[in-house]
Amino acid sequence: MTVLLAKELPVSSVYRLGIKYSHPAGTRSEPQTLFLKLSRADAPKKLARAEVEFYQRAAPAISCPPLVRCYSSEYEEHTGRSHILLEDLSAAHSQPAEHHPPSESASRMAVEALANVHAAWWNDPALGDQVGCVFDDEWLVKFVADLEVSVTRFLDLVRGELSRRELEAYGLMLRAAPDIWGRLTRRDGLTLTHGDAHWWNFLYPSDTAKGAVHIIDWQLWHIDLGARDLAFLIAAGGFAEPRPELEAGLLRQYHEALIANGVYGYSWGDLMRDYRWSAIRNLNLPIIFHSQGKHESTWRAALRHSLDAFERLKCAELIS
Fold first, then answer.
1. How many domains does the chain have?
2. Which domain covers residue 310, as residue numbers?
3. For 117-130, what is each residue's pLDDT tens digit?
4. CA distance 39 to 74
């Protein structure tokens, strides 16, 4: 085995490995390269544990693609370290340059890949039982109380920069918070979500006619509305500038893929309602990013994008 590439990321160390067999490779199923992901010693243990749990408990119900094939995943409780050994797709897949979203066709493939994952776990009775946790009323009360504190502190920082209408958007969100986040305490229409669905957590095929998009980095997966992933990716821009001209088409692509994968009783109107509710939740993104110590440009972009989407999608109509 040889290390072909090594790279340090914020919470993991990743390696592209060349594999040599003691016997001639007899079938094409024997990989010549592999991708190894090791959690860093200084990374939060819950992230290392969560991604291994995803591959061990949730991934078997989802096809590859849209997942990357996982050969081995383990988490050591006493050390808090993990390893994940994956198929190496680097020869035929890539990612766009930083802050530049993929092409329209690749973006459509990405939202279809998300729909395939969401459909695999849509309304599954194992959610909250064998896989993940469903939020409850006790969580909701605490969350709403914490939200009011964090929003108030954040607005004290940016109040002079926001218009009256923008400040009213935050006021409306706070008053409606028990309903907005309370939706997560109802089991209907919930699924397994990525939790960090930005454009660089997808691998895009060099040949879109033959290849498929794969979704990576599952440390933040949880049970939620499928539209929550979409609102982060599309309405908030997925760490790029939003493209409102593509919004309706990408949402249609997602909904059609859900239906094609056997999801029933979830209309276009249902998706748009959940998407707009999720866009309201995006108002909390700049607050989260600021509290995490992300660069000022990151949380300010999230603030601008979330307020623009709140206005564009007429979200105030839902909570006024």
1. 2
2. 96-319
3. 999 999 999 999 89
4. 11
